[in-house]
Amino acid sequence: MKLETMQSSEKPLAERVADQITSLIADNKFQKGEKLPNEFQLAEAVNVGRGTIREAIKILASRNIVEIRRGLGTFVSEKTGLTDDPLGLNFVEDKSQLALDLIEVRAMLEPDIAALAAKRATKKDIEKIKQACKAVEEKIQRQEEFITEDIEFHEIIARSSKNQVVPNVIPVIHSAIKEQIKATNAKLTEKTIVTHRAIAEAIAQRDYEGAREAMKEHLRYNQEHIERVVKEKL
User: Fold this and answer.
1) What does the alpha-carbon distance between residue 106 and residue 170 come to, in Å, rounded to a whole number?
2) Cross-strand bridge partners of residue 66
3) Among 6, 34, 132, 224, whose CB has the most other CB atoms within 10 angstroms?
4) Is the pLDDT of residue 111 over 50?
5) Per CATH, the architecture of 89-233 is what?
6) What is the CA radius of gyration of the chain?
7) By the 8 A CB rule, do 49 and 43 touch?
8) Shortest CA distance to 56 belongs to which of 20, 21, 14?
9) Residue 8's beta-bridge partner residues?
């Protein structure tokens, strides 16, 4: 591997090197989750010192382009470029209203995403959706917290839409849902199982209108439940 030396002197050297590595990742020379060459190898390839490489990696880590795993090395981030709270939702004071606003945003996006998944999902995608659906069910039946599994279910559907923008948008919304659940103490009931199953089945059957309507019903249920909880807290 040999990186081309950038001629521009407008940026500090470490930032220019960071841009070079970013370009390689964007060009798919390094895949998401893949380990990058070590500092020595990168320094040799770019013809800079290891200190510069170290600074470049810190810059990339701050942008969530790479992830530094202590004792293991540096890896391309699975959610490249996405910060934990890119929309600044952690700073919204009225968490109850935020919960309702988030449901509205989801209702604008996710029914059509589910419809696209029904059209475009591969057999492997469908199997993953079914497995994620089952994982949520098992947690609910054991009366355990299932936020992580719920988010994974919706993210797999987003990836199955095969729209390259969607998987970067949905995780942002669903990361905020964790705070939404905490703010409202909303523990969803068995109807989550029913609505999730309806979504998964419609996608598996390539029923894109059915998938759209099933997702709408799922989100309506979520909204009504959160509204009840918010009213009870007033």
Assistant:
1) 8
2) 76
3) 132
4) yes
5) Up-down Bundle (1.20)
6) 21
7) yes
8) 14
9) none
